[in-house]
Amino acid sequence: MLSLFLHNGGAASKGQLRYVATRLLSTTTTSEHFDIVIGGGGLVGTTLAAALAKNDTLADKRVLLLEGAGEFKGFDASGPYQNRVSAINKNSIELFKSIGAWSHIEAARYKPVKQMQVWESNSDALIQFQHDNFASDVACIIENDLILDAVYARVREAANVQVLNKARIECVRLPKDTNGRHSALQLQDGRSFTCELLIGADGANSIVRKEMGVDVFSMNYDRMGVVATLELNDDACDNSVAWQRFLPNGPIALLPLTDKLSSLVWSTTVSQAKHLKELPPAEFVEAINEAFCRQYARVELADKAVQVLNSFFGQQAAQQQVQYPPRVCGVKDGSRATFPLGFLHASSYVSTGAALVGDAAHRVHPLAGQGVNLGFSDVRYLVESLAAGAYGGFKLGDTQHLIKYERKCLAKNVPIMLGVHGLHKLYSTEFSPVVLLRSLGVQLTQNLPPIKNLFMKGAMG
C-alpha cells in the first residue's frame, strides 16, 4: 500500500505515512515476535547481533537480524585485496576479541599501522603519530568483508540469533510506552514482526530513525571519496605507515595493506572524483604520485611561522622534515570506486521501543578514520546498557535504561564528530590567515607531546 501510494506520485506527509503504516501493520494477521530486531546488517548491525549473542545476560533473548543484501558469500583470504577497508582502533579490536571474532581476522590477513604522518600542502606544517619505540600499533587496516566474515561466523554459531536476507523494512510502528505494547514492523515482502526493542542499523536514510521522529542535522559536503587498491614499487619494504596529505580540494590518504600494496582514500570535488575514476590506469597512478609530492602554492607567512615555532622548540624540531610515501606503480583492475561524503547526526539515539546505531545515528567524514569505530563504540555501549537494564528488571525497550546508552554515545561521539567536521572546513580553503592558523595548530601539536598524545589516544579509541 505504501509503495503504491508513493509510486502514484503522492506527496505523503509524516502523519499520512504513519496512518498508512498503522493500517498495514494492524491488518496483518500473524506477526512473529522477537525480543530484539536489528533493522540492517552491515558491519555495525552484524557485529551488534554477535555481541548480543555473546553477552551472558542477554543470551536468552531471541534476536532477528534483517539484512537487506543477499546471503553473504564469505571472504577468501587468498583472493585479491578489496578496495573497501577500515582503520580499526584499539577499542574496536577489544570488541572483536570479546565476541571471539579477532582470532578469525588474525588468521586471515590485516596490516598493523606503526606510524601516521599528516602534512599540509600550503605550508611546511606536519605531524607524526607513533608510540615510543613503536611499541604498539596506531591502528590496523582490515578489509570490510573480512570483518563481516569474522562476525558472521559468530552469528551463525548463536542459537538465539536468526538472520533474514533480502529483508527490507517497509514500515514501522513504535509504542508510546512499554505497558503491554511492542514495536512492530513490516517488510517489503509482506512479512511482519513485533519486538521489545527495534534497533535501527539501517544507514543514513534510516526508516527506524524517521519513525522515531527525532531531529536530524545533515550536510552534503559536495565532495566524493575515491578508493582503489594500489601497487607499490619494488623499493617499498616495511610498508607500515599511514600517509595523509591535505590538498586544496581535500585530503588524500594511503593506507598500508601489505609490503607491496596500499589502499587509497582520496576526498575531493565531485567533478575531480569522476575524472579520476575514468582516467587510464597510468594517468591515475601519476595523479596519485603527483598529489603526494607536488609543490602547491605556498603561504609564505605560514612557512615562516612554522620555522620560528620549530626553532623555539629546539634543533630537533627545526630539523624535522617531511617523509614521502613509497611510489605507486600500478592500480588493481576494477578496484576504483567513488562514494559521496557528508555529515549527519541525530538529536537523539533512543525512543520507547527503539534505538539507533552506526550511520543511522551519525555519519562523519573519513579523514580521521573514525566512522566505523564510532559505530562499534555504539555496539559496546548499547550491549552494556541492555545487559544492565535486563539484569535490573527493565524491559528492553524502556527509555529509563536506553537513555544511559544515549548519554555515553553522545559524550564520546559529539566531540569527535565536531572535531572532524571542523577539520574538513578548516582544510577546505586556501585563505592565507586560515592556512597560517591551521599550520601553527598542527606544528604546536607536533611539538607538544601531551597534546599530541591526547589526539593519538582519541584516534585509538
How would you characterize the overall build of this protein?
The protein has 461 residues and is an alpha+beta fold. Helices cover 40% and strands 26% of the residues. The chain has 15 helices and 20 strands. The strands form 3 sheets. Strands 5, 6, 12, 13, 14, 15, 16, 17 and 20 form a 9-stranded mixed sheet that branches. Strands 1, 2, 8, 9, 10, 11, 18 and 19 form an 8-stranded mixed sheet that branches. A 3-stranded antiparallel sheet has the order 3-7-4. Helix 3 packs parallel to helix 6. The radius of gyration is 24 Å and the shape is globular. The two termini are 45 Å apart. The N terminus is likely disordered.
Write down the overall mean pLDDT. Answer: 88
Number of strands: 20
Strand pairing plus helix content: what structural class? Answer: alpha+beta
Rounded Rg: 24 Å
Largest sheet: number of strands, sense, barrel closure: 9 strands, mixed
What is the distance, rounded to the nearest whole angstrom, between the alpha carbons of the first and last residues?
A: 45 Å
Count of helical stretches? 15
Q: Segments where pLDDT lies below 50 for 5+ residues?
A: 1-12
What is the percent of helical residues? 25-40%
Strand proportion, as a percent range, falls in 25-35%
Approximate shape:
globular
SSE diagram, text form:
Blueprint: H1 2-7, H2 14-26, E1 32-39, H3 42-54, E2 63-67, E3 85-88, H4 90-98, H5 102-108, E4 111-113, E5 115-120, E6 126-129, E7 139-143, H6 144-157, E8 161-165, E9 169-173, E10 183-187, E11 192-200, H7 207-212, E12 216-232, E13 241-247, E14 250-256, E15 261-269, H8 270-278, H9 281-293, H10 300-312, H11 315-318, E16 328-331, E17 337-346, E18 350-351, E19 354-356, E20 362-363, H12 371-391, H13 399-426, H14 432-447, H15 449-459
Parallel strand pairs: 1-2, 1-11, 2-8, 5-13, 11-19
Antiparallel strand pairs: 3-7, 4-7, 5-6, 9-10, 10-11, 12-15, 12-16, 12-17, 13-14, 14-15, 17-20, 18-19
